[in-house]
Structures are given as structure tokens and as C-alpha cells.
UniProtKB/TrEMBL annotation:
InterPro entries: Cyt_P450 (IPR001128), Cyt_P450_B (IPR002397), Cyt_P450_sf (IPR036396). Pfam families: p450. Keywords: Heme, Iron, Metal-binding, Monooxygenase, Oxidoreductase. It comes from the Bacteria. PANTHER family: BIOTIN BIOSYNTHESIS CYTOCHROME P450, P450, PUTATIVE (EUROFUNG)-RELATED. The keyword Nucleotidyltransferase does not apply. This is Cytochrome P450. Belongs to the cytochrome P450 family. GO terms for biological process: cholesterol catabolic process.
Amino acid sequence: MTAATTVRSATVWAIRYGLPGFAIRAASRRGDLIARLTGDPVLRDDPFDAYDQLRAQGGLVTNNFISATATHQVASKVLRDNNFIASPGGAASEFLDRVLLAALDPSAIGPVDPPSLLTIHPPQHTRLRKLVAHAFTPRAIGALEGRIQAVADGLVDRLPTDGTPFDLVEDYAAQLPVTVIAEILGVPAAMHAEFLNWGNDAAATLDPALGYRRYRRADRALRELNAWFDQHLARLRRDPGDDLLSQLVHTVEDGDQLTDLELRTTASLLLGAGFETTVNLIGNGAQLLLAHPEQLDKLRADPTGWPGAVEEVLRYDSPVQITARIAGKATELADRPVPKGRGVVVMIGGANRDPDVFTDPHTFDVTRSNAREHLAFAAGIHYCLGAQLARLEGQVALRTLFERLPKLRAAGTPVRRETRVLRGFAELPVRG
Ligand code: HEM
């Protein structure tokens, strides 16, 4: 890296993670609940009491810097109201956002930098989403079911069934989504291990208090990934495969087409948004069902319950716990004024445990009739583009695992990941 690149990358880190991290740690020490929920490692394992406390303080809770909600009603409103916008740079102010965007190095544009769908607004968002959605129609996703089933079966074939312990995350939960996402992106099997590493690094960059060392690692990985994608996209232009990325390369709608930068950012968003989230869905689901055998018995008695069970896992142990928006203009929420530019943290994991919507919200119940009202895939214009795919992967992965390994049981203490925005397991020791 040149000195200029290092300065740019340090500037991006300082604005995006250094300053917020400092403010979050200082406010956490004072006991500020929003800061603690965003960055206190103690709450990573079990944030649910703290969500309840936040909700008890009202629909919208405000400290010196930021507002937050853990109620389903206010969370839905913020996500669906286009006056609340996804921040282009993720910085705390418009000025810092501008500095950050100017400092961003084009070769280090990542899944949460413009022109990523996650950080652009209408009309740009409408245009790009329409183009990308071509590759994610229910028909395109449905067509992947046979392949997902074959991948799950192939992975279970390799798991030990003689009582030898293994790590369910490394040997199963992580393998299925990486294979699926690699096939969507037309990535050769030889690159899977590399993709697993890139996916892990990308996931870490979602946390607002990311340390400099981890940031540098993620930044380096991102540059490698971008360079690899540039070559890969050039290959797909010359010689398209039947993968979804090849489709995107050649999609033309009313004479409009994705630019090279949009294609590369979308590819890295699909990897960043679609990989670790799905690993966490499968890991969280497996752990919950092992810990609640009576729920697993219900699914064994009635396998048509699997889709509902996956909705309950998404609600109860949401793989994405937090997102945020910025008020694009002065407005009101829960009868409280919200000034223009105010950041609002949406505690998805808290909204999904709101007793006003979900009876006995802290009970894991695979037959819950309204589990699908969860906000695990957000809502509004940024509603997860991969929701159908994630649901399908979750259902196939969990059903196949428990049907084919009927003696599966825990073999040690599960270890949660260090991330706070994403919630899942780093290790899940089991035996079959
Ligand atoms: C269980 C797995 C998943 C969960 C919980 C999840 C969750 C989410 C959430 C909460 C958002 C909105 C973030 C925000 O508004 O701030 C989102 C957006 C998105 N997700 Fe997912 N996701 C999952 C899997 C996937 C998969 C498999 C893909 C694709 C391969 C994917 C692609 C996307 C994309 C492209 C967006 C941006 C949409 C936009 O801004 O218009 N996700 N996801």
C-alpha cells in the first residue's frame, strides 16, 4: 500500500469506526443503554433484556447523539418511511459523510459503500434494484432448490455419524451458503475457501466500533476481492455462464445496464449480505432446535412445519440485529420530534421480541402463527433482496440436517461470534 492509500484508509476508519467507537465506548461506560446495545461486548451474547429495557422507556429513546427504537411499530415505520434514509457513508454527520466518501479509494469500495443498494436512495436505488431484481425472481430462486438440496445432502454425507464431535458451523452451516453464493456469482469451487475468508472479513465491517487492526485486515481483503471481481466480470462478459451474475452482466432494461462499478459493488454486496447472514440463520436454528427438543419433535411429527420454524428462528434469534437510518428531514416519531440529520438505530432483534405483536416473545415456538411478521429482513425499499433465497437455504439446510442425523446432539459449549450487528455462532460443537 502507498502512503497516500494508507492515509485515505486511516481517514475512512477514523470517521466510520474510530470516532463512533470512541463515543460508543465512552457512553457505554456511563451506562447509556443505546451505546451499550450497539457496542458493549457483554450484551453480544444476550441483548434481549436490554432491548426490553429500551422498549420500556418508549417507542423512541434519545441520547445526546442518536435515537433508537426496540418497538415493532416504530421500527416498521422508520424502515418503511422514505424520509428516513440509509446513510451513504455511515458517518454521524453530513459533513463527515462527505469527507468519508471523498477519502474512499475506488479499489476499496465495499458492500456498504455507494453505489451499493444498501446506501443509495431513489431514484438511483429504484433503477439499480430493478436491474438486480431480474436475477432474484421467485422463478430464478425456485430453480435453485434442487441444487441447494444436492449441496446439503453432499455435506451431510461427509459428516461423521459414529459419535465423533464436529463443528456444525465450519463443517455444515458455513459450507452451504458459500457454495450457493459462489454458484450465483459463477465463482469456481477452487475459490470457496477464499470466499469464506472474504465473507467473514466483510461481516466484521458492519460493526460501528471496529478496531483499526481488524479494519486493515478487512480493507486488504476487500481490495483483493475487488481486484478478483474485476477480472471475473471481464471473463463473464466474454464468456457468460448460466449463473445469476452472468445474467446481471448482460441485463439490459429499456436500454439501461449496470455499470462496471455497479456490477462489482453488487457482487460484493451479494457476498457480504448473503453469506454470513445465512450461515447465522442455519447455526442459530440448529442450536435452538438442539436446545428445544420438544420443538424438534413437533417438526418430526409434521415436516410441513419447517417453513414456519425458519420464520420463528429469524424472529427469535435474528441474524441481523441492528440497522440504522438518518432523518432526511425534520419529522416526528412516537410523538417525539426528530430533527433533520438525526440517526435512528433500529433494533431489529428487539422489535422481533415486542410483546405487543408477539405473545410470549421470549418463547421459541416453531408453531407461532404470526412469526412471519418479524422484521429480520427489514422492510420498505431496502427489504432484503435475498429473503426468498435465505428462507429456502434455511429450510433445506435445517430439515436435511435433522432428518438425516436423527441422533444429532450438542457436544460442548457453543461460542457466539464477536459481531454485534450480525448474530450467530462461531463454533457449534455437536456429534451425530
Ligand atoms: C438469513 C439471511 C439474511 C438476512 C437475515 C438478511 C437480512 C437483510 C436485511 C436486514 C437487509 C436490510 C438492511 C437495511 O435495510 O439496512 C438486507 C438487505 C439486502 N440483502 Fe439480505 N439477508 C439475508 C440473506 C441474503 C441473501 C442470501 C442475499 C443474496 C444473495 C441477500 C441480499 C441482500 C441485498 C442485495 C440487500 C440490499 C437490498 C436493498 O438495499 O435494496 N440477503 N438483508
